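hey
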């Protein structure tokens, strides 16, 4: 998984037709939002994460990932960076439809160069780096807080923002987020935590697999101007965001047979200023223009597709180390 977490897990039929509301965000006399109402939370989240404009907005992230083994000190390993482009539409139902693409690259913290291979200090082996790309982020937010359905059918889903989710008497969870106001800014804490069957199984990828289950989690703290969120003539709100991540070793690190039981911890900064490509670090943009220029082009549909995690993508893209029986 990368900047963009697996928020939208509902598969959508290619034949579905979506009726978009005629006014996404503008021309409303009362601009003050009521954050006790799911509809206002949906509107605000769509503006924060994406844009209601006809062109996508770009946000970027970058930071360092550390290895933590037992009681050893955290060891800086590599940088993690990338960007996403996103758009939102408000449907006639009030639901928010989202679409986008994202990249996730690993880089040398000293030079900023995107890595193609990496010397693993735990094993002494040089390994090929698997950079993560996802061009089919599609989905719909409803007045119910989403649950993440990851892994196999019998893996338990995860409720978004489990710690702060509000439960109705009927057991449902409304889409009400833990916004807080400080002076002229809003902050939003947003978490997801997973545990599900590892798509990179040890029988097929013994070097890459870290075991039968994986438990990645990501944690965000957004800060955004209140005036931009509430101004319905502004299609997208800017933000700065602290972004941390905890997970097993990435599959491409080839830690499966190392005997080293540890975790990855990442601290990143994410930001969106509605300034287009200027928000993307220069070396990230140059690498994308050379190798993946399609990720700078807008999406062309609002239809099917759902985000996948890095482990699912690795199992899809990287041939097994062992021939299937």
């Amino acid at each position: 998984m990368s900047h963009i977490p697996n928020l939208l897990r509902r598969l959508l039929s290619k034949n579905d037709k979506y009726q978009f509301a005629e006014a996404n965000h503008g021309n409303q006399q009362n601009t003050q939002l009521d954050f006790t109402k799911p509809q206002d939370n949906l509107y605000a989240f769509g503006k924060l994460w994406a844009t209601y404009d006809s062109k996508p907005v770009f946000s970027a992230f970058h930071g360092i990932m550390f290895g933590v083994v037992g009681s050893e000190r955290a060891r800086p390993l590599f940088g993690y960076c990338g960007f996403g482009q996103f758009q939102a539409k408000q449907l006639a139902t009030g639901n928010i439809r989202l679409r986008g693409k994202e990249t996730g690259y690993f880089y040398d913290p000293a030079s900023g160069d995107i890595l193609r291979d990496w010397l693993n200090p735990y094993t002494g082996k040089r390994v090929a780096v698997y950079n993560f790309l996802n061009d089919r982020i599609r989905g719909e937010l409803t007045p119910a807080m989403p649950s993440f359905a990851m892994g196999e059918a019998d893996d338990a889903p995860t409720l978004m923002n489990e710690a702060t989710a509000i439960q109705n008497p009927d057991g449902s969870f409304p889409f009400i987020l833990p916004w807080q106001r400080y002076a002229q800014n809003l902050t939003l804490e947003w978490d997801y935590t997973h545990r599900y069957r590892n798509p990179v199984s040890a029988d097929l990828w013994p070097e890459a697999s870290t075991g039968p289950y994986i438990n990645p989690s990501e944690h965000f703290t957004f800060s955004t101007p209140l005036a931009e969120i509430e101004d319905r003539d502004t299609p997208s709100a800017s933000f700065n965001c602290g972004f941390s991540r905890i997970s097993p070793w990435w599959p491409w690190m080839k830690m499966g047979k190392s005997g080293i039981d540890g975790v990855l911890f990442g601290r990143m900064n994410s930001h969106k200023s509605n300034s287009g490509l200027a928000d993307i670090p220069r070396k990230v943009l140059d690498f994308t223009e050379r190798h993946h220029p399609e990720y700078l082009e807008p999406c062309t549909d609002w239809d099917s597709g759902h985000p996948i995690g890095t482990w699912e993508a690795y199992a899809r893209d990287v041939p097994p180390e062992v021939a299937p029986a």
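The radius of gyration is 20 Å. The mean pLDDT is 89.
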